[in-house]
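Q: How would the C-alpha cells look for this protein?
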Amino acid sequence: MRAPANCVSDAMTKQTQDQRDELALLDEAWRLESQQHNAMKDYYSVLLIISAAWCRQAAMGAAVPTAFVASFPATQRRRRILHQVLPETNDDAEEQPKNIFNTLRTNLKTAAADGFGTRARNVADTMKINDIVVPLCSNLDKRQRLAERGVYPGVEYKICDIDELGQASADTEQQSRSVSIRPAYPLRDYLERSWPVSVAVDDVPLWLAKATYEAGTAVGTLMLAGTYLSVAALLASFIRIAVVPSESMEPALQPGDVVLVTRSILPPRNGDVVFFNPPKELDEAIANSKVGRAAAAENVQVVSTKGKQFLKRVVGVPGDRVGIYNSNPYVLLGCTGDDCTYRVDRTGEYSRPDVFADESWNRVSPTINSKIDEENGRLDRGEYFVAGDNGFRSVDSRVWGPLKQKYLFGTAQWVIFPSNHFGPIQPGPFAVEKGLSTESH
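A: Here is the predicted structure in C-alpha cell form.
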C-alpha cells in the first residue's frame, strides 16, 4: 500500500517536524503491511493463448497434435515431428481457402457424415486421383515399416495414380490395389525421398479424407483446450501462490518467501496462517489513526488497501474469549477459583503504538470497545482474531478487531521457495501461562 514518494510533499512543507514524522510513518507502516501477497501464476492465461493458437492452426488445416482422431496419439506426435508447415510450393497444389471458418464448417459437415475417431469412414475403396488423404496406423511395428517406405502416418498425401491390379501386400502377400502418393506439402529434408512412392492400400489400416482429418483435429484440439482450461480454472479456485512482502510474520515467514495457499474447506484452527482480503475495518482504523487524521487535515489521500491480500496467524476462533494485554493477544482457556490459564500469542509491541488507539494494546474483548466486559468478550460465529508473529511490524486484529470469515480465502500450508525455507510453516509464538505476564516477545 505504499504511497508515491512525492504524494505528500506539498502538504508537508507547511507542517511542523512532528507532523512530518507522522505522515512519513504512514508510508513506512503500510509499505510493510499492504503489498500484494497474491502472486498467482496465470497459467490458465498461458493455456488459453496456446489453445487459441492450436485451434487457429486446426481451422487452417495445419499440423496440430490431437489424441482424438482414431485414437492414435503416437501418430499425432509423429505428425508434429514430421510436419514443417511451409508455403505450398508444388505447382498443382490446391489454393488455400480464403475463409477459414467456411472451410472448417464444410469440413465439420463432411466429418459428421463420415464419422469421427475410430468410427471415421475409411476411404480406401473410394479415393480417386488428386484426392488428399491421410494414412493412419496404430501398430508401432507396422508404422515403422510404412515410414521406411515413405508413408508417414498423420501426413497428408496426394493420390498421384491408382493401380487396380495392384501389388502384393507386405502383410498378407496377397495381391492388393495400390496407390502412388506424395506429400501434399514439403517435409523436412531428411524425410524427403523420390516421390511418388507406391503402397498397397491394404498395408494402411485407415485412410481418412482430408476434411475428416482436419475436422477431427479441430474438434479434438478444442476438447483438449477446454479440458486444460477447466482444470486450470479449478486449480486456480482452490490454490494460490502468495509472496511474503514484509517482516510482519517473522520468523515463520521471511520477506520474499513464496507460500502455497489452499482454499479453506474446513474452518481455520488456532495457529493456522490464513490468507485473506483486507476487511473494511482496516481502512477505518487507518483513517482514524493519528497519522490518518493528520493526513486528512492536510487533504492528503491515505493509500487504500483495496485489492491487497494479507497473511496472518489465527489467535482465536469463534467462541474464544480473546483480549489483549501489553500488546500480546490472549485467549482465556479457563479459571479455577482466582487462578486463570491463558494461551498468549507473544507478538510483542508495535513499533509506534501511539499511532493507534490505546485500546489496541490493552483490552478484555476482541473488539475495540471498552464497554464490553470480559465475560461477554467472545468471538462471534464466523469471526477470527488474527495477528502477525512479529508484532513490531504487524497491523492486525489488535488494531481493527475480529476478521470476518467472508474475507478469508484459505490457509497457507507450505513455504515452496526459496529451497532453504522449503517445508511446512513454523508454529507461532504461543505460550500457555497462569495469569498474564507483562513480558513482551
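The longest strand covers residues 157-168.

The chain is about 30% helix and 25% strand.

Upvote if useful.
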